[in-house]
Design a protein that fits this description.
- It is a single chain.
- The chain has about 130 residues and is an all-alpha fold.
- It is built from six helices and no strands.
- It has helices spanning about 1-5, 10-35, 40-60, 70-90, 95-115, 120-125.
- Helix 3 packs antiparallel against helix 4 (about 70-90).
- The chain is elongated, with a radius of gyration of 16 Å.
Length: about 130
């Protein structure tokens, strides 16, 4: 039975992986939708947080049989660096586009952090080789 747990990814991990991919896709759509109306400074302010999310999506590609605790911890740390500043951006947004930009990172990012702290997720990433 323990061999089966090593092979089958728990649904919590699969959900976190799906949220990361969805967040990366949403980031691409937001960047493309707002790119025409932003200055280069505004575009730079948007690309930095979304770049971190794309890094998380690349990490999510490793959520297979070879992923271990380091991948989980790295994803959590990067998501914290994305989500925490997004709260202040959402509260201080100058327009609806900035608010939606920050809100998407919060709405997708917080569940990823919570899912990666669940006992089932931790046990799957910390399984023996």
């Amino acid at each position: 039975m323990s061999d089966l747990r090593n092979i089958v990814m728990p649904r919590q991990v699969r959900a976190a992986q799906g949220l990361l991919f969805g967040l990366a896709f949403a980031g691409l759509v937001v960047i493309l939708a707002l790119s025409g109306g932003l200055t280069s400074y505004g575009m730079g302010n948007m690309i930095a947080p979304w770049l971190l999310i794309w890094v998380c999506a690349l990490l999510a590609l490793t959520y297979d049989g070879s992923a271990r605790g380091g991948v989980r911890i790295t994803t959590i740390v990067v998501m914290v660096f994305v989500v925490l500043p997004s709260f202040s951006r959402a509260l201080g947004a100058a327009g609806p586009a900035e608010f939606v930009d920050a809100a998407l990172r919060i709405l997708f990012g917080l569940p990823v952090i919570v899912l990666l702290f669940l006992p089932e997720t931790t046990a799957w990433f910390d399984r023996a080789k």
